[in-house]
Amino acid sequence: MKKAGNKSYVVGYDKVILFSYLILMVIGLLIMLDISSVRNTMMYFYRQLAYAIVSIVLSLYILYYCNLTKLRQFNSLLIGISIVLLIVVLFKGDTVKGATRSINLGIVNFQPSFFARIALIFFFAHIIDKKKEELSKSGFGDFLKSFLSLIVVTGIVYGLILKGQHLSSLIISAASLVCLLFLGGLRLKIVAVALVICLIAGIAVIKIGAKYRSDRLDIFKKYFLFYKGPVPVLQPEKEYQVKESLTALTSGKLFGTGADRGRAKHYYLPEARTDYVFTVIGEEFGFLGAILVFGLHCLLFFKIMLMAYKQTDFYLRLLAMGLALNIFLNVLVNVGVSMSILPSTGNTLPFISYSGTAMLIDSISIGVILNVSATRKQI
Predict the structure, then answer these.
(1) DSSP character for 230?
(2) Quick check: 219 and 239 in contact, CB under 8 A?
(3) Cβ neighbours of 187 (radius 10 Å)
(4) What is the C-alpha separation between 368 and 63, in angstroms, rounded?
(5) How many CB atoms lie within 10 A of CB 92?
(6) pLDDT, tens digit, 9 for 90 and up, residues 90-116
(7) How far apart are CA 282 and CA 252, in angstroms?
(8) What are the φ/ψ torsions at residue 152 (nearest 5 degrees)?
(9) Please, which residues have CB within 8 angstroms of residue 66's CB and are 6 or more apart in sequence?
(10) For 44-93, what is each residue's pLDDT tens digit?
(11) How far apart are the C-alpha atoms of 378 and 187, rounded to whole Å?
(12) Are 280 and 261 a contacting pair, CB within 8 Å?
């Protein structure tokens, strides 16, 4: 297909990445159909189907028609738009369970924090590419001076996300960006310092922040297999969701209970279609079903990283790696929460969970990644 306004057209791209993405999208639709059929809420399936169609079309459009090198000049604009949207959501957004994360646009609840996460990746890739020599030689003081714009912009974005009570999104983004700095050439000792600062900040937010965060940490302590300290005394309703998730997962065993005998989706697990969709997969399709879904995500991630590593354009390499990390760390957090390896947090499973903004943003990321992998012929 010819690219509009450009003298080149796509002659090849990484098909493993595309097919892994499409298979995950199909699995997500089947799981949503399964959950919706017993909850009398087919509306969620139809919405997911609409989101999936729009998302796939959007990703393919980006693959064929976007010139990422030319669009690079708008990276600062993306940051500006994300900051404006994060401010708007604080004043005009819907508050659910104490968190103000989304703006109701009628057909979709848009969450600016997801958009801000990929905007930061574009911005970081741009700045790191411009100053890669400085980055590799920087000490801690030099880094603070040379990359002050990154620090200030990230601080503003993260402050706004934290104000909206979306800590999980902030943590995933921070981990992605620290990894991106390391892949860009930042010295390991500075990466270690950054990780320590992030860890201290995270603990402080949990300890002195909203009460529900410390409650989730207590629940995690109780159900984490390797925790050896005193078992916290909890109110039954606070630990209900984690307890039900582990009950459902363990009942799935190797081959699962089957879709007709799944218990979690029958309102035993309130967030079955979003935060705990991996639990439904593990219960009904067993360890084999769960490992298939997780394996597809792993294949997608490692294939992207391998493809990105081969890129000669340093900016495009960092961009693809950053977007891959943003998706895969989200997977690790969601799966970890379902298995009580990590504290409970509001976090969806990419391409599988019921979601509007997350699916669109992750699909845009896949479109950009496919665009990076594409080979073109000049005409």
Answers:
(1) P
(2) yes
(3) 17
(4) 6
(5) 10
(6) 888 676 666 667 787 767 778 899 999
(7) 6
(8) -65, -50
(9) 367, 368, 371
(10) 889 999 999 999 999 999 999 999 988 999 999 999 999 999 999 888 86
(11) 39
(12) no
